[in-house]
Amino acid sequence: MIVWLNGTFGAGKTSAARELLDLIPGSVLYDPEIVGTGLQMLLPEKRLGEVSDYQDLPSWRRLVVDTAAAVLSEVGGPLIAPMTLLRQDYRDEIFGGLASRRIPVRHVLLHAEETILRERIARREDSPGDPEASASVRDWCLDHLAAYEEALPWLTGDAHTIDTGALTPRGTAERIAEAVRAGEGACDIVQTPEPTAETLAAGVLLFDERDRVLLVDPTYKPGWEFPGGVVEPGEPPARAGMREVAEELGLELPAVPRLLVIDWEPPNPPGYGGLRLLFDGGLLPAADAERLLLPGAELRGWRFATEDEAADMLPPVRLSRLRWALRARERATVLNLEAGVPVG
Description:
By secondary structure, this protein is α/β, with parallel strands linked by helices. The protein has 13 helices and 13 strands.
């Protein structure tokens, strides 16, 4: 298990984490900032100059998950991770990666009012010799308060919140320990096992009266996607697509969808690749669209999009697959792709 202590600078994450080690037997401090520091030493300046924060590096988000899994294999845990995480898509990617490795997460937000945060940040000036007390670091912390305020709506809706304004570090740690023992802050992201070999996946394209395609926004990985998922052993692929549509959207398709595209996705470590099928689920009447259900554990949202709009929403590999699927639909044919390119 990982107890993820979120909150902006000055909320008391690090000091509470140290106190928490005494209150949760066997716990180990796991600071993802160390991963960021390591990447800053390893990556060339050109790459680092392309991002404003190491959290923007996909390698950081991947390594946070991989390192946590490796540390847990050594010590058993739980791990205490004091780390500010204000972008919901980064939270989804990291917590989804942990979920895929069957690592439970307790998400705890340490909150304090802005006036208190500003006082705590300014107080660092009285700590000579502390690298975090420098004027540049204090200014950086203050600059991020606006981003924290903007993230508060989703943070408070996702995490168990503890107001640290009147608490000592020990008092904060005691409240965290109580919350963890009570099961508070449990992360409900879908527990999709990490692939150990090539996979077969089935997606279903659904269209509205304007011929726009339905896209969904998963909580457990970055980027928009088609409704669908991994085909279970012994399951017919088209039926798997129908099952996933029912599970994700609460919609029972009246007929087995027609195959549009079969695409071989090459392995791209750490991914294994495999076969990706896209089916034509047909027209989704407006009345049915109004009744779509979104299980919070899997999907954050959905929308109909034109092909041009999808270009700004889908990762390149999914966009290529969609475009060829739309061409196949127009021609009433099936296209065979390899890495998103037609063959034969």
